[in-house]
Amino acid sequence: MYLILIETGFITNPQEEAQLRTAAYQQRMARAIMQGIKDYFWQKPPDMTWVAWRKSQGGALAGGDRTHRVQPGDTLSVIAVRNGVSVSALRAANQINGDQIRVGQVLRIPAG
Hints:
The chain is mainly α. It has a single domain, classed as Roll (Membrane-bound Lytic Murein Transglycosylase D, Chain A). It contains five helices and two strands. It has a two-stranded antiparallel sheet.
């Protein structure tokens, strides 16, 4: 069992406190945390786990290729490194010719 403490804001900051009270912000934060956990365990799966086995077989998580929703500050190279794939494989999987991606765009992450 793992226990994680995540600091999502400061209630002493009135703006952050107001955001933390909204359901929309809580949902965005929960999704981002969950995606971060999934990404971490895909990149560094504990030995003897299903994810480690799938990765060793060259597979992706259940359902085939994974996806990534582009966040502010993301670049193709950062996304590629985080997911253990080449930029060219990322471009090919998403039919991207240049380096331009849009916030909110969902990219297919090919099996690395």
